[in-house]
Fold this sequence. Notes:
Layout (H helix, E strand, L loop, with lengths): L1 H10 L4 E17 L2 E21 L4 E8 L6 H15 L14 H4 L9 H13 L7 E19 L4 E19 L2 E11 L4 H18 L3 E2 L4 E7 L4 H10 L3 H5 L22 E4 L21 E5 L2 E2 L6 H6 L10 E4 L6 H4 L4 E12 L5 E13 L2 E6 L2 E5 H4 L3 E3 L3 E4 L2 E4 L2 E9 L3
Parallel strand pairs: 7-15, 8-13, 12-19
Antiparallel strand pairs: 1-2, 1-4, 2-3, 4-5, 5-6, 8-20, 9-10, 9-12, 10-11, 13-14, 14-15, 14-16, 16-20, 17-20, 18-19
Amino acid sequence: MLNTIISLLKKSGVHAWEVANTKTQDWEFYFIRHELDQNRVKQVEHINVRVYQLIEDGKFMGSASAEIAPTATESEAQALIDDLAYRATLVKNLPYTLQPVTEAHQARREQAKVDVPRIARDFIETMTRLPETATEDVNSYEIFVNKITRRFITSAGIDVEETYPSGMIEVVVNARKGGHEIELYRIYRSGTCDAEGLKKDLSRTMQYGKDRLRTIPTPALGKADVLFTTSDACNIYEYFVKRTDAQMAYRKMSDWQIGTPIAEDIRGDRVTVTALRELENSSCNQAFDGEGAPIRDTVLLRDSVPQRYLGNRMFSFYLGLEDSFIPSNIAVEGGSHTEAELRNGRYLEVVEFSDFQVDEMTGDIFGEIRLAYWHDGDQVTPVSGGSLSGSMLDFVKEMYLSQETVQYNNLRIPALTLLKNVTVTGIQ
């Protein structure tokens, strides 16, 4: 069907077209406790088509996209392409050039060897080695291991293909005490199985469940230092990435300027963010983005000074950006303090949120606390309830990052992030 679709697109008369063909070999396992409940293997193919049309003698350009089933007939595919060609004329964007063919597209890239059964076995064996107890254990888990083959073809002559692994595991952990029980949910994504990281985090999660059953209400702390030590910190660093997005810059949704510090009088650690082509064991190690642009190692911020914008082809063209792309992997450099140094003094360490958000436009943060630890000198007290709030516009002036880093799939960030003077509303 792919060749048929391409043939129909060449005859369609549209200004330009793109086809993304993704084939996935998927192994799935469903466990209750550690007993296999069911498993299956499936092959899935998706063919996504986008067409472009020039409107009003080239004054505008529109696009439309849809998925065409690999089982579609030729007449069904033709009808969908005709519909896309019409729908594209209803969208009026300023014209822009699409991704041209580069030397990177011409180079043949060796396909990754993906051993799906081995990756699945690694996940299963890791789960059987968890240090469970009579009161803290694994309720159930689901494992998904994919071998993904992705091909991208355009009317401009781009035709690239790559294969890479993608793994995911969803885990439910239970903790019990005196007739009370709590359930914690976790989801982990990676390229292959990060056995050490998975075991460490789930062991910590079981401890969180145990501590959640002995919490007291979060005190009304007013302004307090807050330490982020879990994957929720990713939301903080995604704020920096989004503020350097070409779309945000073009639409004036981000006021950050290239070469200008993001804040005045920065007293804490400065932030350096880099978009990476590859990050060890990431499920996003792709050579090209979703529009066919080659992905390169590129510094977005250096010492809290924006170095360049990156983003999709349309907004990158509008800003006059060369060699732009949509980032897939992100690395944030560690800061000036060790973990031990950041754990000194009085602070609130929040490890479980009901919800945690960082608004990419305003910088406002908000989180509802499910479990935190109030560190008051030598005393550590598990607390629950209440919320925290504040603004990244203030926090970027004084935030402290650990020298040590940790990876969450396609994000490598400081293991500890300390925000100063966060508003903590308790329930006392």
